[in-house]
Amino acid sequence: MPNRKLISVSQMPPVLGYENESATTLSEGMAAVAGSAEGLCTVGAADAEVLGIVAKGTEATTGQVASLHVGHGQLVYVRSGAAFAVGAPLTIDNAGRFVTATSTKKIQAKALGAAAAANELIAAVRMDGQSVVA
Fold this sequence. Notes:
Layout (H helix, E strand, L loop, with lengths): L14 E6 L5 E2 L3 E4 L5 E4 L8 E3 L4 E2 L4 E5 L5 E5 L9 E4 L5 E3 L8 E3 L9 E6 L8
Parallel strand pairs: 1-4
Antiparallel strand pairs: 1-7, 2-6, 3-4, 3-5, 5-7, 8-12, 9-10, 9-11, 11-12
Pfam family, one: Phage_cement_2
């Protein structure tokens, strides 16, 4: 008998390719924002609206294509910019890494695990980036 609880075979959001125009290498779990033209992306800046999250196993230097998870409400892995708790609302810092969102900051993801320090890959649910912490 089939498992009727299975809603979707893939819980990962769609992946699209964008050319990295920043001088910073985009690594797995980092946030990327829209670049200067269609099809381009750059490293995210603090509290900017996220275009996508760099897919696991991806590293893109300037001019290379970065695979980005786009869409909302699904599982992604985010790179921490500092320690944060399970369930924390997350925004991004100036290096495109995820940190706890404080008052009035855009919520880009919700942590499904805790980060003890910077540069850890942590499971999260991607949020819309429009909602803010009250």
